[in-house]
Amino acid sequence: MIDKDDTECNLYKYDCMIPSLFSKWFPFIEGKGFKTPESTIIPVPQDVFIACYDPHIKAQRELIESFVKENIASLMQEHKTYFCKNGSFSNKFNFKDCWTYKQRITESFININYAALCCEAGGVSEFILREPVFTRRCIYSTIYNGMPLRPEFRVFYDFTNHKPLYIVNYWDYDYCAEHIYDPEDRKVFDDTREYLDTMFNKHKFRAMRESESNLRNVTGLDGIWSVDLMLADDDTFFLIDMAVGIQSAYWDAKRIAEKGGVV
Prior knowledge:
Helices cover 37% and strands 20% of the residues. The chain is α+β, with helices and mostly antiparallel strands and 263 residues long.
């Protein structure tokens, strides 16, 4: 007979060992060159982790509400906007979940984690509260219920040999368009394509140079990671996310081998 407690414990331990968890890379990157949004990592205990599998049960919901109130909402200011995510997933496809505020942080917590579990993304063992990278939202088109389409760059960086390998447009049209299913979002993306491509081509070489200079002194990380940079309104880069390279979109083993990376 399978012990329920053992199963829950194993699920929790497995989630805590996800290589790309925010807590496994952010402390090594923060303050090392690139701007990063101020971020707070909140560990999620096992009982709340398990409750996220079925937050519609009253007792599970109450457990989550109590945890969020005491450990997350207590850190937030009234009438202030935050960006939130779990350890490896933001559910940006419904942007109102991750662009949130104190009064609806419980709903954000539940929706992000439930979506992560449904698509097997994990990361539920920790929750991240971040200062948003503010922007003049009126100058950007939006998709996914309010997400500004800002220029983003994905650099594949080899932390073992300390060198950038290659860069891709995070919003590469050929890759992204077929995965944007809402007709209105797809039209916005089509209309924004030229701008995103132009900004990528304009700034990609600088993104590579700054990756080389800003990440060369980072210690504590090994292997190849994807490093996501967002271009702010003042044309500076914010490092907003990272993940183990082989688990990232645009991973290309052949291209990495040609660049002399560790595969």
